[in-house]
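Ticket #4471: structure output looks truncated?

Reporter: J.K.
Steps to reproduce: submitted the chain below (334 residues) through the standard prediction queue, then opened the result file.
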Amino acid sequence: IIYNKTIEYLLIDNSNETYSKFRELSESIRFNLCKEILKLDTVSEISQNTFINDKSYLVRSKIAENLRKTKNPSQLIPILQNDKSALVRQKCLLSRSKISSESGKINFKEFLFDKSATIRNIARFHLKDSNVNFLEIYKKGLEDNSLLVSSIYSIGEFGSEEEVDLILPYYNSQNGNIKKAAIRTILKLDATRIQSQLLDELNSKLKSVRKLAIENLSISPNDTVVNRCREIYSSGDVELKLSMLTFFGRVCSYKTLPDLINALDDSNENVVNSAWLHLTNWRKNSISNYTIQDEKDKIRAQEIYGQIKFRAELSFANKKLWNEIPYFGRFNKE
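Returned output as attached by the reporter:
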C-alpha cells in the first residue's frame, strides 16, 4: 500500500517535479519508475521523451519494448532502431512486429547486417521462407566497408571451413574490430588454420585480440604455448603481465601453478593482487583437478614457493591460502 501511494504521488500528484529531476535519480530508481509508468494504458509525451533520452540503456529498452503504448510510435522508431545498445534495437524491432500499423513496414533485409547477432538471427528467421541465399549476401557484404565486420561474423554463423580462405586476409587488418571478427570467425569455422598465428597474438597491442588468443590457447596448451607466455610475463609490462596471469589462471593446472606463485614476488601491487585472485580460484578448482603432476612441475613449485619473501604482512585470507598451497599443489614435504 505504501509503495503504491508513493508511486501515485510521484507520477500523478507531483509529476512535474518528478520528470524535471528524473535525470538526477539513480539508474535503479529511474528504471523502476519507468516500469510503473509503462503500466499505464497510454504513455504521455513527456514520459516517452524522458525515457528515450535517458542515459541508461535499460530505461531506453523499456520504452522500446512498449512502443504500442506510445501515441506516435512511428516518431520514436527511427531513434530507437538506431540506438547504440543492441538490446534497445532488439526490443524495438520485436515491438514493431507486434504493432499492426508498423509490422508491414519492416524490411527485415535491412537488419541482416546489424551489429547484433541476435537481431541478425531475428531478421533471418522472418526471411527464412523468402528463398534468400544468406551466405551469398554476406559474401557480397565483404565488398562494403560499412558492412564488413557484420559480414565476417555472419559468414561464421553460416559458412563452413571452405570459407576460411575468404576470411584469412582480414586477419592482417590494422583495424582491431575487423581483425577480432576475422579471428572469431576462423576459430568457429576451422580453429586449426589460425593456431600458430594466435601464438604471436599473446602479446598483441590490441587487448581484445590478446584476450581472444588467451581464451583459445589456454584450453589445452602445449609446452610451446606455456613457455611463450612465461617469456612474455618475464619481459612484459604490467598490462602484459596481467594478461599472462589470466592465461596461467585459466589453464589452472600443476604446470602453471608455479607461475602464479612467482607473481606474488612482483614489484607491482596490481600484479600481486591479480596473482592472489588467480591462486584463490586455483585452490577452489584444485579439488576437481585430476591431471597428472609432472615431477619437474612439482620441483619447480617447491623451489619458487621457498624463494618468496613477502614485503608486508599478509591478510588473514592470503596467509591461510599461502599455507594451504603446498597441500593443494601436491608439493608439501611429507
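Triage note (M.O.): checked the attachment and the full C-alpha cell line is present. The mean pLDDT is 90.
Status: closed, working as intended.
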